[in-house]
What we know:
alpha+beta, six-stranded antiparallel β-sheet, 15 helices, 21 strands
Amino acid sequence: MADIRGFRGFRYDLGTVGSLSDVVAPPYDVIGPELQQKLYDLSPHNAIRLELTKDESGDSEAENKYTRAGRTLKAWVAENALRQDTARALYVYEQEFEAEGKTYTRRGFFARVRLEPFGTGRIFPHEQTMSGPKADRLKLYQATGFNLSPVFGLYPDPENEVFRALEPFTRKSPPLVAKDHLGVTSRLWVITDTQAISAVTGLMGPKPVFIADGHHRYETGLKYLEEQKAAGVVSDDEAAPNFCLMMLVSMGDPGLIILPTHRLVSGLPPVTAAQVEAALGEHFEVVGRFGGDAQACWEHLEMDGGQDVLGFGTVADGQWFAAKLKNPAVMAGLAPGQSEAWRGLGVSILHKLVLEKQLSALGGTPALTFVHLLKEVTDAVAAKACQLAVLVPPATMEHVEEIAGNREKMPQKSTYFYPKLLTGLVFNSLKKD
């Protein structure tokens, strides 16, 4: 059973730090140097100074960005820039945003969720993780003793029972509001009603939780728990390191969208549409040619709605076409250890068949850049930043549930849940409740 708890979060005292918009930040994995500096300049209390502290010349094992983050957090607590809530709460989090010309509202809630090793309980990953980001986050956990940014979890709830228990409280008081650098409006309500919290934790108990984003943070939480147990500081199963901060959203929420992750392929010779069509010919049928119109190609993929149609744009001659896999059975020989659902994903077909097999005849050493918006694709093509662009249909929630529920990991960059969750709305202590 998923063990979901209310908790006494640490939040900014806005009387001390000013506007909430000035102190929140995206998660570390989408912050480049330019945005990092912009957030540093925004406020001396911006969460970037914890989430992704700057490296400095002369850093050492004893003095580095992690130790600075730890000192900064302690100082903010000491000066009451951060205060711990007095009552256990669930924190309703709403994000209003625009994607590809449409406006969405996604709603969920922050909770403290008991950690359990993958494969042993009701929490399911869907992505592979890498050692580098986990080592980075572990050092930050060790230095601060906090979950600074949340894991993003999804749960099935077709009748919306869980959120219905919290929704009335969002109408009783105005939210805290922040607007981020992408124009996303975030709203936060603090729900301390014990009956509502009890109702939510009871309803969530039998439900599986699928990790949408934050796999590295979740696995780091497990590693940190192991370390704390070995050090003898975890007294029992109720100790704070047994839990992690998680944002939970119903898989049926109308604002839950998965953006596609398109591929920009460089490292190839200048290839034309005719050359790519010829390379694909054994296993793909061209189902549409669109001249220089990437938008028309993408609309064709959207109208088809399947995973077995990919869009290809060749920079050398500025042409776009869509190609459909002739026989899905070919994937069984390329990925015999994977399920049929995994083999049917557009990203699986692209990587296992197209990139690893068919395009090898074109020569070169392909290197990939990942983008999510069609404009990012067309800008890259216009700038000749790649030789080939591939439009990929997005995986669906049904794919995530089926493949993760089968305890499989999806291929790299299969999903992009937009927008990312902000860091700085609420922090979770790994030392005390």
